[in-house]
Amino acid sequence: MSQPRRSPHDSYETETTDHQTETETILLKHLPRNPNLPSPLQKDAHLQFLIRNLIQGFPSRYISQDASQPWLLYWTLQSFSVMGVALDPDNKQKAIDTIMAWQHPDGGFGGGPGQAAHVVPTYAAVCALAIVGRPGPGGGWDQIDREKMYEFFLSVKQSDGAFLVAHHAEVDVRGTYCLLVTAHLLNMLTPELLEGVPAFIMSCQTYEGGFSSASQPYFSPEPEGPPTLLDSPRPPLGEAHGGYTFCSLASWVMLQPYLALQKPSLQRPSLNFKTLLRWLVQMQGSEIELGGFKGRTNKLVDGCYSWWVGGCFALLSSLGIVGVHSHDGNHESSTTHQEEEAWGDIDDSLWDRAALQRYILCAGQHPAGGLRDKPPKPADSYHTLYCLAGLSSAQHNVFLSSTRQDAIVRSWKTPPESTHEQLRQACFSHSLSWTEEEGTSHILGTPNNRMNATHPVFNLTMTHTEGIMAHFYKQTIPSRPKKT
Ligand code: FPP
Ligand code: ZN
Fold it and tell me: Any one Gene Ontology biological process term (predicted)?
């Protein structure tokens, strides 16, 4: 078999071209002999790695990670879940007690005991509770102070629809995503919380098509004058990046029920899906890069973008941008944007699902267990989860089913009377209508490489998502039609 071609460059050597050349040389050594038979997934070794890492906690040289304790637990628990492993009741209880010690008395969760509340670890703590928690005393779910958390969320809201990630901290679209997921899971959505958020997301889209971390909130044409809030579109702040793009697009998907309930208006925020799709597609590496994803233009492939960028295609499908042929017989879409119509017939051959699986299996797995950015880097829990979740999204077609959404709406206990209740019902049914398309999963290599499907927006399994949402919305979720 001939060797794949090296990436072309213009012979002007820079640090960037050197890193690219070095990476290609290393990745070449990880090319499988048979492209359809990549290295098998070493589930046991990865489980052992995760357990070891969790028990040891962050090594002392990672003191800066002290505020990421909820993340370490979430990465570990969700990696277990996608690999189909559940904790025993004792370990679940230990995890619940640990998480609840991170709750701040004034609402939200901090990055460790006694730490200030922060929107981002709040997401990690609540998702970890979705996996291990339960209703009732000591179960975690009913000990979450939702009133105080809601007050905390409102207190970090800015007039332009952005959220600070914590008091006296910065605006970042990661905060928007984390806050929206938490508010969805815990039934805390209100029009007040969501007002202006779509316009903020829109303002983060860059000329490349991907999203940056934030946008310029204020603009003063007169240097001496008081700063005035700039109307949309505001200039994005910084470079398009896969992490921010996932957070923006997933937030946009979560905002669809809210947008659908708004009165039609000319100023309705919209995204440029044409440039977004083009940018996402260009983030997938070539054959010599084993089909892994990059996080930004002219940077290197990295296993974690398997989820942050690879996961965006399912999100686009829910907006009708990348077509998914569903058993429902209709094209799944909850879109509010006209331009999407023209893009609805593009199928997911736009990205190479098999190649991504090859990157994760051949380059992402560390021989001693755990998954990583790229060889020869060490494994860590963050890359372990996002490689495994990326593997899952490459294996399964998960789409938003209108049939499923209708069934969930039909089983809603009492008809919604206010717009507030309508919003909650719409967000509940929208979030829970993600459905795996039967018979279309594509597992590269041995069947043991199969991951569980994961919710494309929340990155929790459907079972965990349904469990926690049914509890907080006080609804019974209709069972899914039996597989035939
Ligand atoms: C650049 O790192 C990384 C960023 C600028 C931020 C990445 C953001 C995420 C991964 C999203 C996280 C999401 C949540 C919900 C918290 P780098 O310069 O080391 O990497 P690069 O060269 O690949 O850009
Ligand atoms: Zn990474």
Answer: prenylation
Identify whether 413 is part of a domain.
yes
Which is catalytic among the residues 43, 148, 278, 299? Answer: 299
Residue 23: is it exposed, middle or buried by C-beta count within 10 angstroms (0-12/13-18/19+)? buried
**Angstrom distance (rounded) from CA 314 to CA 310:** 8
pLDDT under 50 in the chain at which residues? 324-327, 329-346
| Annotation says 127 is catalytic | no
Q: Give me the number of domains the chain comprises.
A: 1
Instruction: Give the number of the ligand closest to the Cα of residue 179.
Output: 1
At residue 484, the pLDDT reads 54
Q: What is the CATH number of the domain that holds 115?
A: 1.50.10.20
Residue 173 domain boundaries: 40-54+67-217+229-321+349-473
Task: Supply the pLDDT for residue 221.
Answer: 67
Among 127, 178, 204, 304, the active-site one is 304
The verdict on residue 19 lying in a domain is no
453: in domain: yes
Looking at the domain assignment, is residue 17 inside a domain?
A: no
pLDDT of 329 reads 42
Residues with Cβ within 8 Å of 280's Cβ and at least 6 positions away in sequence, in order, are 209, 210, 245, 309, 312, 313, 316, 351
